[in-house]
Design brief:
The complex is a heterodimer of chains A (315) and B (427). Chain A is of the alpha+beta class and 315 residues long. Chain A is 40% helix and 23% strand. In chain A, strands 9, 10, 11, 12, 13 and 14 form a 6-stranded antiparallel beta sheet that branches. Chain B is globular and about 65 Å long. The chains are: A alpha+beta (315), B alpha/beta (427).
């Protein structure tokens, strides 16, 4: 595999996940340096294109979460600038980033995903919120998971157990995005399953089982060390773990993802894995799941990132 | 099988770390540091207005002429020359004090920490204004104090409310924490008439007054109001700072305390950091001695007055008529009350999307108050940026009102996190 000498890590941006992204970016940068790559972190701001010209990297690693980092925009710009990058194409990103689209494609491919309704704020305003919410409750039934149709880190997401809490959950959701994805909440074991392309072949890493101490995997539980216990490999029957791995692989393949992805899913009491969403720029912080899977697989994060960049540079 | 707990020290932390968790609000503030965002959230003084060439020359001269001493350990109580100069600064607000009773601290924040450390046991009560400076609430929480808020109005602390609170709390109350001048975040000042009343009530209830006065010299209208400490030396501990009159990067503040208290403060400070840095103390002392520093304070006053005007004009031009705000006559902040039914913390993501930032009111309370409030600062952005920020925020309020109208009322309360306030280096 051709080597990568110099790399830029893109991190920051203007999304709600800027802080998470900066932590991801610094961690990837450190890991790349330990793997012998001359790496530096850059924000996706007005100086980005100039910086890329000046640095002349062999490839870029995208650690931008939310918005342009995951919806394909930055990748499109890197394509224009002729800078190879690790990760999926703009087209694939657009499908993965829009959660309803990803769910629809996975369902069509035979993967279980909780029944859901996607509605923009305007629809509620125009048709009357209460009438729409009533139908929604009748159709999907409680408990419900309300979340923005794109974006990560559980921002804007609420599990609704009580009908009275639904309107405020909607308001919370619409503070973070224009469109809400309201889906049937599946009780079960929360898993994050990462997929890496190794020599061009998608390879599933050990699943991470997530057990937040508060019971809810919210922002604080995600990014405060110690507030969540993680089990790798997951404490589930082999059959369930394999079924979850198959879902992650299906998401990677069906959406045409490349290099790396992390699928979030719930395994219910019957052992059925339910696809929730897939991330094309998964978190790389100290409390993120993809790096845990990498470690559990006996791999070195720096070497993994370096190899992904090398593969990108060789494309 | 045990899982991976990413914090192997989890069961060893002190109880006071409760609430030190990652915060969505702090994450949103991270975006505000980008130039696309008009930040009306931070509290950074406009240090670009300082005579930087003169400061550079003074620092160079300091190293050249007194380098070995400036770079050496110093006195735990602080440099004697600086303490004398601090007394001349306090004299501008009517305070007569001896340099012996001054303890130099690393910013007045350390003074706040020391005073709390020597007076407050876990469970003790600190009485504080409603709302209160977020950094003070952090300190009180660190010492596991229970904060009891007292109502304010446009003339500052309401004496009747103070009286009632002190009667109710009794001997559990260790001190009253107050920012009488150009309050952060409320933007109001304690009226002249109320100053003696507040002191009288505190004395009668035998409770110390901790007067925090970082903004006293930054009034826009005439002479500064005499400090509480100027009225009585008994029972008042005074916190001062060079962060707003000179530069926060130097981290030089002070405590003026009755001598018995001062002795304990010095020992507590030595136990904490040995001594405040000689270097920055000498820089401040040289600046006070050799530069026309009071003229520079006038420059700051004019600059902040212009920005205050820009903010108030923009608010009255652009904000909805059912919002209200305080009119600051000095300092950095105005305190906004949103139209009924809106929640400033819930609205913050919309604001960040619209590229404007503020601090939600809940950050300034130890209890659940403040949902309908927010703090706007005008100290850092240029006047036209302030107007642009207010314009964006007005649009956000409209969008939030529309959301609330669509879905009806229904409050969402989330617990306050220690990180809900802005970081110190936020614009």
């Amino acid at each position: 595999m051709s080597g990568v000498r110099r790399a830029v890590v893109l991190a920051g941006g203007l999304s709600f996940e800027r802080e998470v992204s900066l932590r991801s970016g610094r961690r990837v940068c450190d890991a790349l340096r330990s793997a012998g790559v001359e790496a530096s972190v850059h924000d996706a701001d007005a100086s980005l294109l100039t910086t890329l010209d000046e640095v002349g990297p062999d490839a870029a690693f995208i650690a931008l979460h939310g918005g342009p980092g995951e919806d394909g925009a930055i990748r499109g710009v890197l394509d224009l600038a002729g800078v190879p990058y690790a990760g999926s194409t703009p087209h694939a990103c657009r499908m993965a980033f829009d959660k309803p689209t990803a769910k629809g494609l996975l369902r069509a491919a035979g993967v279980a995903t909780p029944e859901a309704v996607t509605l923009p704020h305007g629809t509620f305003r125009e048709l009357g919120a209460h009438a729409v919410l009533d139908r929604l409750l009748t159709r999907l039934a409680l408990p419900l998971l309300v979340k923005p149709s794109s974006g990560g880190s559980s921002l804007g997401a609420t599990v609704v157990h009580d009908e009275a809490a639904l309107p405020s959950a909607m308001v919370h959701c619409f503070s973070y995005g224009d469109t809400a994805l309201v889906e049937r909440f599946v009780e079960g074991t929360e898993l994050a399953v990462s997929v890496l392309d190794v020599d061009g072949t998608p390879t599933v890493l050990p699943a991470v089982e997530i057990v937040p101490k508060s019971g809810v995997f919210d922002y604080a539980a995600r990014y405060t060390a110690g507030q969540t216990d993680y089990y790798t490999p997951a404490r589930l029957p082999e059959r369930s773990v394999n079924a979850a791995a198959a879902v992650a692989l299906a998401a990677h393949r069906v959406l045409g993802l490349r290099d790396l992805s992390r699928t979030d899913l719930i395994v219910d009491a019957d052992g059925t894995p339910w696809f929730l969403e897939v991330n094309v720029a998964p978190g790389m912080t100290e409390t993120s799941m993809l790096p845990m899977s990498v470690a559990a697989a006996g791999l070195d994060l720096g070497v993994v990132c370096r190899d992904l960049l090398a593969a990108a540079a060789a494309r | 099988m045990t899982g991976v707990n990413l914090d192997p020290y989890g069961d060893r932390y002190a109880a006071r770390t409760r609430g030190m968790t990652a915060s969505e609000i702090r994450a949103l503030f991270a975006v505000a540091s980008r130039p696309e965002v008009v930040s009306l959230a931070g509290g950074m003084p406009y240090t670009a207005a300082l005579p930087l060439d003169a400061v550079a020359a003074a620092v160079a001269d300091l190293v050249a002429t007194r380098g070995p001493v400036a770079l050496q350990y110093g006195s735990g109580q602080g440099d004697p020359e600086l303490r004398e100069l601090i007394c001349t600064v306090m004299a501008l607000e009517g305070i007569v004090a001896s340099p012996d009773d001054v303890v130099v601290t690393v910013g007045s924040q350390q003074g706040l920490d020391l005073v709390t450390r020597i007076f407050v046991d876990p469970g003790d009560v600190v009485v504080a204004e409603a709302p209160s400076y977020v950094g003070a609430l952090g300190t009180f929480a660190a010492y596991e104090a229970e904060v009891v808020h007292v109502t304010m109005d446009d003339a500052g602390l309401v004496p009747e409310a103070l009286e009632e609170t002190l009667a109710r709390v009794g001997a559990r109350a260790k001190f009253l924490y107050t920012v009488p001048n150009f309050h952060n975040p409320a933007g109001v000042s304690l009226s002249r008439e109320r100053r003696d009343v507040v002191l009288e009530i505190a004395a009668r209830h035998n409770i110390l007054v901790l007067e925090d006065n970082p903004y006293g010299l930054l009034g826009f209208d005439g002479e500064p109001e005499p400090a509480l400490r100027a009225r009585t030396a008994d029972g008042v501990i005074y916190l001062g700072s060079f962060s707003k009159t000179f530069a926060p990067g130097l981290r030089v503040g002070w405590v003026l305390a009755p001598h018995a208290v001062r002795e304990k403060l010095v020992l507590a400070s030595e136990a904490s950091l040995l001594c405040p840095p000689n270097f920055t103390q000498f820089v401040v002392a040289d600046y006070l001695r050799t530069q026309p520093w009071q003229d520079q304070v006038k420059v700051f006053r004019e600059l902040y007055r212009e920005r205050r005007d820009a903010m108030l004009d923009a608010l009255s031009d652009l904000f909805p008529s059912d919002a209200s705000w305080t009119t600051p006559h000095g300092g950095f902040y105005t305190w906004v009350t949103l139209p009924e039914g809106l929640d400033a913390k819930e609205m913050l993501p919309l604001a960040v999307t619209a590229r404007v930032a503020y601090v939600p009111g809940t950050a300034f309370y130890a209890d659940t108050q403040g949902a309908s409030n927010l703090r706007l600062s005008y100290c850092y952005p240029e006047p036209e940026r302030i107007r642009e920020g207010v314009r964006r925020l007005a649009g956000v309020i409209e969008a939030e009102q529309e959301l609330r109208e669509t879905f009806g009322p229904g409050a969402r309360t989330s617990p306050r996190s220690a990180a809900d306030g802005p970081a110190p280096d936020m614009a």
